[in-house]
Write a structure and sequence with these properties.
The protein is an all-alpha fold. The chain has one domain. Helices cover 85% and strands 0% of the residues. It is built from 9 helices and no strands. The chain starts with a helix and ends with a helix.
Length: 220
């Protein structure tokens, strides 16, 4: 159980970033609820993935689909107000934040759960208990990251870049294309993560500027 908790803590740094990014635009009273519910949903999904991880990772194109989802999330989370805006009810915004947390954690956990599955040694009950114990630690890490983002807004961009990097690394490791890339275009494997990180930031910043300019034009 200690091994499971330790592995999960080591692998949850990027998940804490996602949770903090997803809830940062919520009203203060809903941020903690979204962090707790989002973390619980993410850990539950991680248990399910761990049970089926070996078979899942054999499926071709799965990582490419997950990579595309992460790129979209990395861009989307740079935009102010997340999914919502002044006309969206706060309860809908909270559910949208939890949905984003769940999708991102599910995608990023495809590789991470291998370590957790190895530590569990086939004991599903032990796995569930160990991951449940780790929930408070994930919540604490997300809360700390959220406060840092509120104090230093540039961390939002760095968090999105991290998602882009993970997306690129995941894409080039997909079983459908990895062998071909390794033989014919190894440079894509080396630069995949960095390229996607830069691309996510560039597109996200462009959309933020575009949204700001459109808002200014409406005021004028």
């Amino acid at each position: 159980m200690l091994e499971i908790i330790g592995v999960d803590i080591l692998l949850s740094g990027d998940n804490a970033v996602v949770i903090a990014l997803a809830v940062r635009s919520l009203p203060l009273q809903q941020q903690r609820k979204a962090i707790i519910f989002g973390s619980m949903a993410a850990v539950t999904m991680r248990v399910i993935l761990t049970v089926f991880v070996v078979e899942l990772l054999r499926l071709p194109y799965l990582k490419l689909i997950g990579s595309a989802l992460l790129l979209w999330i990395g861009i989307k989370l740079q935009l102010p107000d997340g999914d919502g805006g002044p006309d969206i009810e706060s309860k809908d915004t909270m559910f949208a934040a939890i949905r984003t947390i769940l999708i991102a954690d599910m995608v990023m956990s495809l590789d991470n759960v291998i370590g957790i599955a190895a530590a569990a040694k086939g004991h599903v009950g032990l796995l569930m208990i160990g991951l449940a114990i780790s929930i408070p630690l994930i919540v604490f890490g997300s809360s700390v990251m959220l406060r840092l983002m509120q104090r230093f807004p540039f961390i939002v961009v760095l968090g999105s870049a991290l998602l882009g990097y993970i997306s690129g690394e995941m894409a080039v490791s997909d079983s459908a294309i990895h062998s071909w890339l390794a033989t014919n275009a190894a440079w894509i494997i080396r630069l995949g993560g960095i390229s996607c990180a830069l691309g996510v930031v560039a597109v996200g910043r462009w959309l933020v500027r575009r949204k700001t300019d459109l808002g200014s034009n409406r005021v004028l």
